[in-house]
Design goal:
single chain; 264 residues; alpha/beta; Rossmann fold; six-stranded mixed beta sheet; four-stranded mixed beta sheet; 8 helices
Length: 264
């Protein structure tokens, strides 16, 4: 079966709540003889912030890449509600081109899409707007080596937003940063997701941090060790904004931590 199957517009689900955006049905992903994901089913609703949590090497990043269409499925389906669904992908490392400025890195996806190295004034304006959105409006002409690690990740986030995605797929983008910088960028991410400045409505993020998952998410998808199977889909009903010190958040983190430990 195909890994990613757009739904015909005539079969689209009417707008109501809940509103499934991505449906994963009995997904299996293999790399040779190694099973990375085994029989995983999951529904991503429009407007949700979802975290994928599990032991290192369990298949979280593989699941994210399967949703993006970057790796094929051995069996099962990933069904997109809208065949025109736009996705943005942000990797663990910023992967910026060192010979390009912050602005030059943000407009790169447009250049690749257009098959050249020239962008029009509309794209240039949008790239500057994305950099403003991630608080880097004063650094459009800075090169990656002139930016801190956190600032480089902000550029990478602006680049991921450049395509105006409906869904943002995040592969532990802030995991290598210090805790203070990571907290600030997580707050920025939630601010952008909740704002109406872009068409972004849904976020799916890989993380190894239980506090980060509970603080940011509407749901935490807890996975087993490889091959990835679903342990529990944990709803997070604490009001926003949240901190890891909130009593309700502490109880949920304790519950998730016990599940992760038991699955090893």
């Amino acid at each position: 079966m195909n890994a990613v199957t757009p739904v015909n517009p005539s079969q689209a689900i009417p707008l109501h709540q809940p509103d499934p955006l991505i449906t994963i049905e009995k997904l299996q992903v293999r790399f040779g003889d190694v099973a990375a994901i085994d029989g995983l089913s999951l529904i991503v609703q429009r407007g949700e912030f979802i975290s994928l949590l599990g032991p290192s090497g369990c298949g979280k990043s593989t699941l994210l890449r399967a949703i993006a269409g970057l790796v094929p499925a051995a069996d099962g389906d990933i069904i997109l509600r809208d065949p025109k669904l736009r996705t943005g992908f942000m990797f663990q490392k910023p992967l910026l081109l060192p010979w390009r400025t912050a602005l030059g890195n943000v407009v790169l996806p447009v250049e690749l899409q257009n098959g050249g190295n020239v962008v029009d004034s509309t794209d240039d304006y949008r790239a500057r707007r994305m950099l403003d959105m991630v608080q880097l409006g004063d650094f459009v002409d800075a090169y990656p080596q002139q930016l801190s690690g956190g600032m480089q990740q902000r550029v990478a986030l602006a680049r991921a937003l450049m395509g105006d995605p409906d869904v943002l797929l995040l592969d532990e983008p802030f995991g290598a940063l210090d805790e203070l910088t990571r907290d600030v960028l997580n707050e920025e991410l939630v601010r952008i997701w909740q704002s109406r400045e872009t068409r972004l409505k849904t976020v799916v993020m890989v993380t190894h941090s239980i506090p980060e998952a509970v603080t940011l998410s509407d749901r935490v998808i807890v996975l087993t060790a490889r091959p990835a199977r679903l342990i529990e889909d944990v709803p997070i009903r604490c009001p926003r904004p949240r901190t890891p010190e909130d009593p309700d958040a502490i109880a949920i983190m304790k519950h998730i931590r016990m599940m992760v430990r038991a699955s090893r």
